[in-house]
Design goal:
- This protein is of the alpha/beta class and 359 residues long.
- Strands 6-5-4-3-2-1-13 form a 7-stranded mixed sheet, with helices on one face. It has a 6-stranded mixed sheet with strand order 7-8-9-10-11-14. A two-stranded antiparallel sheet has the order 12-15.
- The radius of gyration is 20 Å and the shape is globular.
């Protein structure tokens, strides 16, 4: 299993470094420029509450200099630009964002959609955006384009410095999907699987590349389809709410029980996934407003609310990793290595959960 190096906290999104390819957990400067390996970049792990330290849900899978985006919550384009400038990931320059996948239609996952459509277009996107998602994404797209029609026409008619196909590249190709393989190119095969959330349709995605397999659950209650998708995967990213936070929100508990996952449930998902995994998985997490309750097995824990980059397989012999999201932390089981964190809030987090860890 892997450990993650963390860098300094900076304003507007807690830009942190993480590298699964190192055997040390000490903070260090890491060059994330593309080297042909698959990278997972957490652009945002927030929820509907406007936490100034967390952008809205968005994850980028970067393979061989190409970026594949999952969800487009508020701040997605600026987080991508930050990853380009601060981490050297040129694939995340906004004009290079050309393929995106949506898990479901909730506003916290889609408020950045109009920004994803228009900002890369204005700044040099060379081809139409390709978007894959559940039924309803076409209607949402049509309404966004209609709402900004005056802007589109004005820019096309006055911005004489833009390329000749400027009128074509503001548009996009929208694909309403079904479960199964929905996308394939030279870098990646993407498989959609159904999840259980508030909408009639919601999806998680599995990305298979030459060196990694990554599963992203999106918002969901525990689902057999997620367990099936993650069997044999290298990285599982899964949403979670902590029991402590839920205890303080009795009004939210019925909704959470139907549409979200608790730490205890996520531990069970990890256990059920062990049968075909080379290394057992365990996890813990915290919601944005509360500390975590530990689910199973000790191991180094990492807060995932920051912009973080993961690649490789890193500390320890195990090739598998589980990364939890939704104001998240990830833990690798059976690894007693303790990591140092530069951010005080991470030190406070570990102090807060220490008493809840099982022996």
């Amino acid at each position: 299993m892997s450990s993650v190096e963390s860098g300094p906290v900076v304003p507007s999104g807690d830009l942190l470094r993480g590298n699964l390819g190192h055997t040390s957990c000490r903070p260090a400067a890491v060059d994330h420029r593309s080297n042909g390996k698959t990278q997972v970049v957490l652009l945002g792990t927030g929820n509907p509450f406007p936490d100034p330290d967390r952008s809205g849900p968005a994850t980028a899978i970067v393979v061989n200099g190409s970026a594949y985006l999952v969800d487009f919550g508020p701040g997605v384009v600026r987080r991508a630009e930050a990853a380009m400038f601060d981490k050297g990931i040129k694939a995340l320059e906004p004009a290079n964002l050309t393929v995106a996948f949506l898990t479901h239609l909730h506003s916290d996952h889609t408020v950045g959609y109009r920004d994803l459509i228009f900002t890369p277009w204005v700044t040099g996107r060379k081809v139409p955006l390709e978007v894959y998602g559940p039924k309803g994404i076409k209607a949402m797209t049509d309404h966004i384009l209609a709402a900004w029609q005056a802007d589109i026409e004005e820019r096309i008619s006055t911005e004489s410095w833009q390329p000749g196909n400027y009128r074509d590249t503001y548009n996009l190709n929208v694909h309403e999907i079904n479960p199964g393989v929905i996308y394939k190119d030279a870098n990646v095969t993407v498989t959609a699987f159904p999840t259980k959330h508030a909408f009639r349709e919601s999806y998680g995605y599995r990305f298979d590349t030459a060196d990694r397999s990554i599963v992203i659950s999106g918002d969901t209650t525990p689902a057999q389809s997620t367990i099936d998708a993650c069997h044999g995967c290298d990285v599982l990213m899964h949403e979670v709410n902590t029991l402590e936070w839920l205890a303080r929100r009795p009004d939210f508990q019925p909704y959470a029980a139907k549409y979200h996952t608790t730490t205890t449930q996520l531990a069970e998902i990890a256990k059920q996934g062990q049968a075909s995994l080379a290394d057992p998985l365990s996890c813990l997490n915290r919601s944005p407003s509360g500390f975590a309750s530990r689910s199973i097995i000790a191991g180094p824990a990492f807060e995932g609310g920051a912009l973080r980059v993961f690649r490789g397989s890193g500390c320890g012999p195990g090739p598998r990793r589980l990364l939890t999201t939704f104001g998240s932390i990830a833990a690798s089981p059976g690894r007693e290595r303790k990591c140092s964190f530069q951010a005080n809030k991470r030190q406070l987090f570990h102090k807060a959960i220490r008493g809840q860890l099982p022996a």
